[in-house]
Amino acid sequence: MNKPFPLMAARRALLISAVALAAGCAQQAPKQPAPEPVRLMTSGGFTAAHKLLAPQFTAQTGIAVESAYGSSMGASPTSIPNRLSQGEKADVVILARGALDQLAAKGLVVPGTQVDLVRSAVGVAVKKGAPIPDISSEDKLRQVLLNAKSIAYSASASGTYYETQMLRKLGIHDQVMPKSRKIVTERVGTIVARGEAEIGLQQVSELLPIEGISYVGTLPDSVQHYTFFSAGTASTSTNPRGLEQLLKFYTSPAAAKAIRDTGLEPVAKPR
């Protein structure tokens, strides 16, 4: 049998050694742990924007976002104040500014960490296929509400405004409240889509994603009420670095288009 040339044999041995060394290194190299996820709670007003932004954030940073949803206020078991009071953990909380400030006062959100993200207007919707009412002026909105057989409104910030201020401004509180229904566990648009209410009022960003409704438009300026949705650090947060990266992305110019597409107006300065 012919013996390999010495040079070829040496090259072959060197190649075998290199392959073995690489395999050994690959086996010994420790795997890098995945970044700690950011745990986020958000109310309905910012939900649609968050669902667009969270995948973009994860793709850019490799940090997963664990999301929980609930109303800014109210007695529902899934409301964010109740979730936090019952010990549910979070890193960042996004909800109506007034409710966020109340959580800070109770120590459930770290005081001084609140930052306004977006501004949201109140809008009106009807069941898909129903006639579109004219709400272009205060007088026309007043007549629409007086003529409606049933009205659904939110249990959150926009609903509080509706039942305590808006109807009184219009001078129709006593006539309209008896046929108005506060929606606690569902979106107002869902109730309207099922035909359980003729008119629905809620934050625009909460109406737009709902199928089966026609979005009519925003309330007239004279009775419009803007809600600021703000972020704050939960007192249970364990991921300050991930939280800071998330808020930096959510307040960046790159996030502004998605925010506007969901019916919100960005107000935060880039971090």
Which tags fit this structure?
D-Maltodextrin-Binding Protein, domain 2; alpha/beta; 271 residues; 5-stranded mixed beta sheet; disordered N terminus; single chain
Task: Describe this entry's structure for a reader.
The chain is α/β, with parallel strands linked by helices and about 270 residues long. It folds into 2 domains: about 40-120 and about 230-265, D-Maltodextrin-Binding Protein, domain 2 (3-Layer(aba) Sandwich); about 120-225, D-Maltodextrin-Binding Protein, domain 2 (3-Layer(aba) Sandwich), CATH 3.40.190. The chain is about 40% helix and about 20% strand. The protein is built from 11 helices and 11 strands. The strands form 2 sheets. The protein has a 6-stranded mixed β-sheet with strand order 2-1-3-10-4-11. Strands 7-6-8-5-9 form a 5-stranded mixed β-sheet. Helix 2 (about 45-60) links the parallel strand 1 (about 40) and strand 2. It is elongated.
Strand order of the largest sheet: 2-1-3-10-4-11
Contiguous low-pLDDT stretches (5 residues minimum) are: 1-5
Helix content: 40-55%
Number of domains: 2
Whole-angstrom Rg: 27 Å
Tally of separate helices: 11
Largest sheet: 6 strands, mixed
Residue-averaged pLDDT:
89
Layout of SSEs?
Blueprint: H1 6-28, E1 38-42, H2 44-61, E2 65-69, H3 80-85, E3 92-96, H4 97-105, E4 115-120, E5 122-127, H5 138-147, E6 151-154, H6 157-170, H7 173-176, E7 180-183, H8 188-193, E8 199-203, H9 204-207, E9 213-218, E10 227-233, H10 240-250, H11 253-261, E11 264-266
Parallel strand pairs: 1-2, 1-3, 6-7, 6-8
Antiparallel strand pairs: 3-10, 4-10, 4-11, 5-8, 5-9
Helix pairs in contact: 2-11
